[in-house]
What we know:
Blueprint: H1 5-11, E1 18-21, E2 25-29, E3 37-43, H2 58-75, E4 82-85, E5 101-105
Antiparallel strand pairs: 1-2, 2-3, 3-5, 4-5
The structure holds adenosine monophosphate and zinc ion.
Amino acid sequence: MPECLFCRIVKGDLPSRKVYEDELTFAFDDINPKAPVHILIVPKIHLPTLVDAGPSEQELLGHLLLAANKIAKEKGIDGRGFRLVLNCNPEGGQVVYHLHIHLLGGRQMRWQPA
Length: 114
Ligand code: AMP
Ligand code: ZN
Protein backbone atom coordinates (compact mmCIF):
# COMPACT_ATOMS: atom_id res chain seq x y z
CA MET A 1 0.00 0.00 0.00
CA PRO A 2 1.48 3.42 -0.93
CA GLU A 3 2.45 5.54 2.03
CA CYS A 4 0.38 8.53 3.10
CA LEU A 5 1.02 11.74 1.11
CA PHE A 6 1.81 13.90 4.14
CA CYS A 7 4.06 11.21 5.70
CA ARG A 8 6.06 11.31 2.49
CA ILE A 9 6.26 15.13 2.65
CA VAL A 10 7.38 15.00 6.30
CA LYS A 11 10.12 12.49 5.38
CA GLY A 12 11.25 14.63 2.45
CA ASP A 13 10.37 11.92 -0.07
CA LEU A 14 7.97 14.36 -1.77
CA PRO A 15 8.80 18.05 -2.28
CA SER A 16 7.10 20.79 -0.30
CA ARG A 17 7.71 24.42 0.59
CA LYS A 18 8.59 23.99 4.25
CA VAL A 19 7.79 26.92 6.52
CA TYR A 20 8.35 25.42 9.98
CA GLU A 21 9.62 22.29 11.69
CA ASP A 22 10.19 21.14 15.24
CA GLU A 23 10.48 17.77 16.96
CA LEU A 24 6.74 16.99 16.67
CA THR A 25 5.51 19.19 13.86
CA PHE A 26 6.08 19.97 10.19
CA ALA A 27 4.43 22.82 8.25
CA PHE A 28 4.42 23.64 4.54
CA ASP A 29 2.57 25.76 1.99
CA ASP A 30 -0.68 24.34 0.68
CA ILE A 31 -0.32 23.43 -3.00
CA ASN A 32 -3.69 25.03 -3.81
CA PRO A 33 -3.77 28.16 -1.64
CA LYS A 34 -7.12 29.67 -0.69
CA ALA A 35 -5.53 32.80 0.79
CA PRO A 36 -2.22 34.71 0.53
CA VAL A 37 -1.03 32.65 3.50
CA HIS A 38 -2.22 29.05 3.41
CA ILE A 39 -0.06 26.67 5.40
CA LEU A 40 -0.70 23.10 6.49
CA ILE A 41 0.52 22.17 9.96
CA VAL A 42 0.86 18.43 10.45
CA PRO A 43 2.14 16.10 13.17
CA LYS A 44 5.25 14.15 12.17
CA ILE A 45 3.56 10.93 13.28
CA HIS A 46 0.80 9.50 11.14
CA LEU A 47 -2.59 10.14 12.72
CA PRO A 48 -5.43 9.90 10.17
CA THR A 49 -8.03 12.20 11.74
CA LEU A 50 -8.77 14.23 14.84
CA VAL A 51 -11.11 11.52 16.10
CA ASP A 52 -8.19 9.07 16.12
CA ALA A 53 -6.52 11.22 18.77
CA GLY A 54 -6.86 10.32 22.43
CA PRO A 55 -5.39 11.43 25.76
CA SER A 56 -1.90 10.34 24.68
CA GLU A 57 -2.07 12.92 21.88
CA GLN A 58 -2.95 15.80 24.22
CA GLU A 59 0.55 17.30 24.15
CA LEU A 60 0.83 16.85 20.38
CA LEU A 61 -2.49 18.63 19.73
CA GLY A 62 -1.47 21.55 21.93
CA HIS A 63 1.86 21.60 20.14
CA LEU A 64 0.16 21.97 16.74
CA LEU A 65 -1.77 25.02 17.97
CA LEU A 66 1.36 26.61 19.40
CA ALA A 67 3.12 25.94 16.08
CA ALA A 68 0.29 27.83 14.36
CA ASN A 69 0.84 30.67 16.81
CA LYS A 70 4.58 30.80 16.00
CA ILE A 71 4.03 30.62 12.25
CA ALA A 72 1.40 33.38 12.35
CA LYS A 73 3.91 35.57 14.18
CA GLU A 74 6.69 34.70 11.72
CA LYS A 75 4.38 35.58 8.82
CA GLY A 76 3.38 38.85 10.53
CA ILE A 77 -0.33 38.06 10.54
CA ASP A 78 -0.83 37.50 14.28
CA GLY A 79 -2.15 41.00 14.89
CA ARG A 80 -4.27 41.28 11.73
CA GLY A 81 -5.69 37.85 12.36
CA PHE A 82 -5.96 34.48 10.71
CA ARG A 83 -8.10 31.38 10.63
CA LEU A 84 -7.37 27.78 11.60
CA VAL A 85 -9.40 25.02 9.92
CA LEU A 86 -9.35 21.33 10.78
CA ASN A 87 -11.47 19.17 8.48
CA CYS A 88 -12.47 15.80 9.90
CA ASN A 89 -13.81 12.84 7.90
CA PRO A 90 -15.96 13.02 4.74
CA GLU A 91 -18.69 15.42 5.81
CA GLY A 92 -16.04 17.66 7.31
CA GLY A 93 -14.45 17.90 3.88
CA GLN A 94 -11.29 15.99 4.76
CA VAL A 95 -9.43 14.79 1.66
CA VAL A 96 -5.99 13.87 2.99
CA TYR A 97 -6.16 11.41 5.87
CA HIS A 98 -3.17 12.63 7.85
CA LEU A 99 -4.33 15.09 10.50
CA HIS A 100 -3.58 18.67 9.52
CA ILE A 101 -4.53 22.20 10.48
CA HIS A 102 -4.97 24.80 7.74
CA LEU A 103 -3.56 28.21 8.69
CA LEU A 104 -5.20 30.83 6.47
CA GLY A 105 -4.44 34.52 6.47
CA GLY A 106 -3.47 37.63 4.59
CA ARG A 107 -7.02 38.55 3.62
CA GLN A 108 -10.35 39.18 5.31
CA MET A 109 -12.04 35.89 6.21
CA ARG A 110 -15.80 35.50 5.97
CA TRP A 111 -17.95 32.91 7.67
CA GLN A 112 -18.48 30.23 5.01
CA PRO A 113 -19.80 27.03 6.53
CA ALA A 114 -20.02 25.32 3.11
P1 AMP B 1 -8.29 18.65 3.53
O1 AMP B 1 -9.46 18.85 2.63
O2 AMP B 1 -8.47 19.34 4.86
O3 AMP B 1 -7.91 17.18 3.68
O4 AMP B 1 -7.09 19.42 2.87
C1 AMP B 1 -6.08 18.83 2.14
C2 AMP B 1 -5.22 19.94 1.61
O5 AMP B 1 -4.00 19.38 1.17
C3 AMP B 1 -5.82 20.72 0.44
O6 AMP B 1 -5.93 22.10 0.78
C4 AMP B 1 -4.80 20.51 -0.69
O7 AMP B 1 -4.63 21.64 -1.51
C5 AMP B 1 -3.54 20.17 0.08
N1 AMP B 1 -2.57 19.35 -0.62
C6 AMP B 1 -2.78 18.21 -1.31
N2 AMP B 1 -1.63 17.72 -1.80
C7 AMP B 1 -0.66 18.58 -1.41
C8 AMP B 1 0.76 18.63 -1.61
N3 AMP B 1 1.43 17.69 -2.31
N4 AMP B 1 1.44 19.68 -1.08
C9 AMP B 1 0.80 20.63 -0.39
N5 AMP B 1 -0.54 20.63 -0.15
C10 AMP B 1 -1.25 19.62 -0.67
ZN1 ZN C 1 0.59 10.15 7.20
